[in-house]
Specification:
Keywords: Kinase, Phosphoprotein, Transferase. This protein is an alpha+beta fold. It is built from 7 helices and 7 strands, in the order ααβαββαβαβααββ. The structure holds adenosine-5'-diphosphate.
Amino acid sequence: TEEALRQSQKMEAVGQLTGGIAHDFNNLLTGITGSLELMQTRMSQGRLTDLDRYMAAAQGASKRAAALTHRLLAFSRRQTLDPKPTDVNALIHGMEELIRRTVGPSVHIEVVGSAGLWSALVDSSQLENALLNLCINARDAMPDGGRITVETANRWLDDRIARERDMSVGQYLSLCVTDTGTGMTPDVIAKAFEPFFTTKPIGQGTGLGLSMIYGFVRQSGGQVRIYSEVGQGTTVCLYLPRHHGDAPGSERMPDLAGAPRA
Ligand code: ADP
């Protein structure tokens, strides 16, 4: 779990780095657009002097922009997944102390691990990062303290629910993190998975937490859902694919109920 903390700090740093890269990239684009506009104006006026200077400026900026995107791509490639059968209840248990220390004493943590939980097929260190990030988001939504509930369940998605959630029919585990915080407006929910979208002050939010979680869970064959109401709180659920290789006898009743309470 110390490893998870270091990972999360690294992610924070990487977030700031990528945020910086996006900013630099935008500046370069502005420079390129400006140079092109100047060239166009000059050409339309028949003044062809200086054109090569503007051209060189645009080319230089384009090359630097390409170098920046290569850096970003190199980073994203390093995030290869290593899915393995994972006991999600045990993973949460192993993270509990770290989560408590991270969110501080004003936030009460409750863990409700379902008995007979299937094992999930996921990259466990990515899942640890995701869980910690969800709890940090929950804490940030509760500046005056509150309660975080981490809950797991077996879920059997039938046709209708699967279609509704853009998932394949089948068996999943849900890992839901609920807080009693500010909640999110429909507007914020709609944008929450976008990289760099944040409502937090500069230096506090990178806007990468949920987008990275979304990327990881979708790549794992799962889905992420946000249920939130302003003034009530937020539930973020990760639906993780079940690992089929469990010992028989761990079957539970199919869960057709769909969304947890929000
Ligand atoms: P960051 O936390 O750096 O802002 P995220 O991608 O994790 O980036 O979250 C994006 C935005 O979604 C946050 O800025 C916040 O507005 C909203 N959000 C995420 N989780 C919660 C939550 N538990 N309660 C309220 N708002 C949330």
